[in-house]
Specification:
- Helix content is 9%, strand content 60%.
- By secondary structure, it is mostly beta strands.
- The strands form 2 sheets. It has an 8-stranded antiparallel beta barrel with strand order 1-2-3-5-6-7-8-11. The chain has a two-stranded antiparallel ribbon with strand order 9-10.
Length: 215
C-alpha cells in the first residue's frame, strides 16, 4: 500500500513540473558598483609655508640690451578654504612668495654687464580637485603679479607684470590628518611689458613644496 501511495505522489509532482513547462534561464545581472566617497574630510580653512624655485623670463625677442632671465629659491606662504562634496574638493586661496630671483649676463653685447631681479610674487586663485581618501589631485586657476627690474651698462628700468596663472598639484594627509604635504607646479602668463623702452616678455614658472596646517 505504501508503495502505491509513494508512486502516486511522485507521478503528481512530475505531472505538475511538466505542466509548468521548462524554466527559462535567467540573464546575468552584474553587480552595481557604487563609488565610495572620500573618507578623509578636506573641508575647512588651511595655511602653510613652502619652499619655491622659479624662473622669470626677460625675453626681448633678440633686442639689445637682452636682459637675463631671473631664477632662484625662496619661501612662500599660502592660505585658503576648501569645501567638499563627495570626492569633489573646491575652494580659493592666496599665495605670497618671499623671494628675490636674479640673473646676470652681457646684455647680448660682449663687454657689457646686465642684471635682473624679481620680487613680490603673489597670486589669488581658485582650486578644484578630486579626493581619494587622504590624497588629493588638484588644479589651480587664477591671477598673479610680480615686480621686476633690470639694470646695466646699456641702461635699465622696472615694471609690474601681471596676468593669468594655471597650476597642477598633489596633496597628501600625514599623521593624524591635521597636517598635509603639498606640491604645486605653476605657470604665470605675464605677457609683455616695457623695460628701458624694450618690449620684454615676463612669463614665469614656479615649483612649490609646502607643509600645510588644516583647521
Amino acid at each position: 500500500m505504501k508503495t502505491i501511495i509513494a508512486a502516486a505522489a511522485l507521478g503528481l509532482v512530475a505531472t505538475s513540473a511538466l505542466a509548468s513547462g521548462p524554466v527559462a534561464p535567467q540573464p546575468y545581472v552584474p553587480p552595481v558598483t557604487v563609488p565610495v566617497a572620500s573618507g578623509y574630510d578636506w573641508s575647512g580653512a588651511y595655511a602653510g609655508l613652502g619652499i619655491t624655485y622659479g624662473r622669470a623670463q626677460y625675453d626681448t625677442n633678440g633686442a639689445i640690451p637682452s636682459y637675463p632671465d631671473a631664477d632662484g629659491w625662496g619661501l612662500s606662504g599660502i592660505a585658503g578654504y576648501n569645501w567638499q562634496s563627495g570626492n569633489l574638493v573646491f575652494g580659493g586661496e592666496v599665495v605670497a612668495d618671499f623671494s628675490q630671483r636674479s640673473g646676470s649676463n652681457d646684455c647680448g653685447a660682449p663687454g657689457n654687464t646686465c642684471s635682473s631681479d624679481v620680487e613680490n610674487q603673489a597670486s589669488i586663485r581658485g582650486r578644484v580637485g578630486y579626493a581619494m581618501d587622504r590624497s588629493l589631485m588638484f588644479m589651480t586657476v587664477g591671477y598673479g603679479r610680480d615686480e621686476r627690474g633690470a639694470s646695466g651698462t646699456l641702461g635699465g628700468g622696472s615694471a609690474v607684470y601681471s596676468g593669468a596663472m594655471l597650476g597642477v598639484g598633489y596633496e597628501q594627509a600625514i599623521g593624524s590628518g591635521a597636517w598635509t604635504m603639498r606640491g604645486d607646479l605653476e605657470h604665470y602668463f605675464y605677457g609683455d611689458e616695457q623695460i628701458n623702452g624694450i618690449t620684454t616678455n615676463g612669463d614665469t614658472s614656479i615649483l612649490r613644496l609646502s607643509v600645510i596646517r588644516r583647521f
